[in-house]
Amino acid sequence: MSRKPVDLMVGNKVSSGLIGREMLRGFSEENSEFYLISPQKSDGPYPWTKTELATHLVKWFKGVSS
């Protein structure tokens, strides 16, 4: 976060499923565990669909711009 001049970053765990026993995660999957990282705090993981993530991001951006 200290190297990125942004207000919010979203992260999630990804795996191609090719190494070890990890199953496919984050690629072409509708569900994931997302982390929201801001300069003030880090929250998560949130078990959301990508649509739910988008809804939360729109609400967050609306709150920032008010």
Task: Report what the structure shows.
With 66 residues, the protein is of the alpha+beta class. It has one domain (9-65). 24% of the residues lie in helices and 29% in strands. It has 1 helix and 3 strands; from the N terminus they run βββα. The chain has one helix at 50-65; strands at residues 9-12, 31-37, 42-49. A 3-stranded antiparallel beta sheet has the order 1-2-3. Strand 2 (31-37) and strand 3 form a beta hairpin.
The biggest beta sheet reads: 3 strands, antiparallel
Flag low-confidence runs. Answer: none
Count of alpha/pi helices = 1
As for the number of domains, it is: 1
- Beta percentage is 25-35%
The N- to C-terminal Cα distance equals: 24 Å
Q: Which geometry do the CA atoms define? A: globular
Give the tally of β-strands: 3
Rg, alpha carbons: 14 Å
Q: Trace the largest sheet across and list its strands.
A: 1-2-3
SSE string: EEEH
List the helices and strands and how they pair.
Layout lengths: L8 E4 L18 E7 L4 E8 H16 L1
Task: Describe, in short, the structure shown.
By secondary structure, this protein is of the alpha+beta class. 24% of the residues lie in helices and 29% in strands.
List keywords for this structure.
66 residues; alpha+beta; three-stranded antiparallel β-sheet; 3 strands; 29% strand; globular
